[in-house]
Design goal:
Structural class: alpha/beta
Shape: globular
Helix content: 40-55%
Largest sheet: 8 strands, parallel
Strand order of the largest sheet: 1-2-3-6-7-8-9-10
Number of helices: 12
Bound molecules: 2-O-methyl-1,6-di-O-phosphono-D-mannitol
Length: 325
């Protein structure tokens, strides 16, 4: 049986990335409705089948993060999604958080929940074929926020999640996302991202999380989407790498970025520019959701005649990101 370190290294190996297809039912429903597809269990299943059966996906994708519903659904040929992924040479992941909820005492901030019963859920997901897990914390930059209270609550939950996953045999993807929402500058995003990552790694150490058996999934360091001054690609790449060098221990096998609302092309360009920022102790790769599957969803729009075109749209993004690595 592969060790946590072997699985973590496989997740970030061979220029491949991790596809985030773990939208919660609410998020997936709005994405389907936005392209004119009714939100139903079956339409979510069909859409996810389109994504994972994209020809040659395995060449640029090492694993796919699934949500609980997809993990229990089957492809048209009767295989479960984790089984089909394994047959195609990809790892199956599972999102185990239960969502970001309002933080008591901080009306504009959230804390991610899902620790209750997690030990038992991890055991069940292992039995269903999952090999890695994901938990996303969201940090908002704004007037007087993030508060220390929100940062500490979120990193505490992330570290306890990571420890429980490792204990149960799943590699945790640890995702502290500093959101792009707002008009903050690149420098403010860097300051917050650096502070969050510092406290996160202190907490992971406290909870005895093995750094060589996890993957970090951070935001790139960018300006808020409403900031009038938008930095160029090379500045984003250098600032992101500088921030990670300051905070992420070399034992972590890989860093897989989220796209966070960047356009697919810009996220790929940032990823490519980071590979030219000197020798790095960890693999730098992608774990995009929207920046990988957005064009496929727009192309498909529920039309079975567009199935192959939609898969081609996903393929184009996946190949471009692998090439950028
Ligand atoms: C795919 O979306 C993931 C789950 O979102 P919800 O639980 O809010 O429905 C999300 O965590 C995603 O994995 C990350 O945000 C990365 O996706 P992007 O689109 O930011 O690359």
């Amino acid at each position: 049986m592969a060790t946590l370190n072997e699985i973590a290294r496989e997740m970030v190996s061979n220029r491949r990335g991790i596809l985030a297809a773990d939208e919660s039912i609410g998020t997936m429903s709005s994405r389907l409705e936005s392209v004119g597809v009714a939100a139903s269990d079956e339409n979510r299943r069909v859409y996810r089948e389109l994504i994972v059966t994209t020809p040659q996906l395995v060449d640029s994708i090492s694993g796919v993060i699934l949500a609980d519903d997809t993990t229990r659904q089957k492809l048209s040929d009767g295989r479960t999604f984790p089984q089909a992924l394994q047959d195609m040479g990809m790892l199956a992941g599972i999102k185990v958080d239960t969502g970001a909820k309002p933080l008591a005492g901080s009306p504009d901030e959230k804390v991610t929940e899902g620790l209750d019963g997690l030990r038992e859920r991890v055991a069940e997901y292992v039995s269903l074929g999952s090999t890695f897990a994901k938990w996303r914390a969201v940090i908002t930059i704004g007037d007087g926020i993030p508060t220390e209270r929100a940062v500490r609550a979120n990193v505490h939950a992330l570290a306890r999640y990571a420890g429980l996953c490792q204990e149960g045999g799943l590699v945790p993807i640890v995702e502290p996302e500093v959101l792009m929402d707002g008009s903050h500058s690149l420098a403010q995003c860097q300051q917050v991202t650096r502070a969050v990552l510092r406290v996160l790694f202190d907490e992971l150490d406290l909870m005895k999380v093995r750094l060589d058996g996890m993957v970090l999934k951070p935001n790139m360091v960018v300006a808020g989407k409403n900031c009038p001054e938008q930095p160029g690609v090379d500045l984003v790449a250098q600032t992101t790498v500088d921030t990670l060098r300051d905070t992420v221990p070399a034992e972590v096998p890989g860093i897989a970025f989220l796209s966070g609302g960047q356009s697919p092309e810009l996220a790929t360009r940032h990823l490519g520019a980071m590979q030219n920022c000197g020798d790095l102790p960890w693999e730098l790769t992608y774990s995009f959701g929207r920046a990988l599957v957005g064009p496929a969803l727009e192309t498909w729009r529920g039309d079975s005649a567009k199935w192959a075109d939609a898969q081609q749209a996903l393929s184009v993004r996946a190949v471009a990101n692998a090439a950028a690595r």
